[in-house]
Amino acid sequence: MFASLLLSAxxxxxxxxxxxxxxxxxxxxxxxxxxxxxxxxxTLPPDAHFAAPLPRFALLGSVVDTGPLGAVQATTVYYxxxxxTALKGYVSELTRRHWKSTNVFxxxxxxxxxxxxxxxxxxxxxxxxxxxxxAAGQAVMLQQNKFAHSLAVSLAGGRQSVAMxxxxxxxxxxxxxxxxxxxxxxxxxxxxxxxxxxxAGMFExxxxxxxxxxxxxxxLANIGSAFASQLTAAGWSADPVAQTPALYAQGxxxxxxxxxxxxxxxxxxxxxxxxxxxxxxMRDLDAKDEPGNFESRIIMH
Length: 301
Prior knowledge:
This protein is α+β, with helices and mostly antiparallel strands. The chain folds into 2 domains: 2-173, no CATH class; 185-299, TBP-like (2-Layer Sandwich). It has 7 helices and 17 strands. An 8-stranded mixed sheet has the order 1-2-3-4-9-8-7-5. Strands 11, 12, 13, 14, 15, 16 and 17 form a 7-stranded antiparallel sheet that branches. Strands 6-10 form a two-stranded parallel ribbon.
């Protein structure tokens, strides 16, 4: 994606270290590339004027999206990922200057903590994505990217940002949909260390996927049995276990408010000794258009 972006983008040269240019390239490659852009490695755009205050983090560079007609639509400034204290300080500065958060990030945090699943140590860090709206149709978007270890601060104005702020403000005022029955907090069995998985989980209105990386000397059967006991203690009915030397799989069922839920626990041996990848996929069977697909997909893992 980044290679195709460079073919149609203007690259502003600068005497920054190569590592900074590489980091900026990674940050852009990890985001959605656009065709009509100018990339400034290690600098801000020349003669740029920003309605919002910019953070004082380590600068990677910036990208100006001019759109097909040549008018500036948005400017995105990329920074090294700041620590949590510094990021909270910048958010407080935006608030102090009367930029109003649409609470997208806060609601995502609240919903994540209410869904249960594997309790990893240290707890997973939810990448911050937040929208701040200011006067005269201005908007500031913050987006953390864990893969690129970067923070993108996007500033936009005009009709698009006015519509976006109006829509997000309206959505933030709406009550959240009722969550699915929370999965229990699954704690690590004795002798097992449970950490965040290389791939993140997913939580939707009626579905959830939670993952973890396990290390320790316990057998697959013992690990699976320990998690199964926690699920049944929370009211889930267990199906028979399916097991091979490298895989443990077991289904569970739950009924609440007339909805039937299905969750599949899968623990698979990873590419290193005494290391396992665990996943727990939950679906509301009454909310699916094709109720057979979920179980077929999980069985094929």
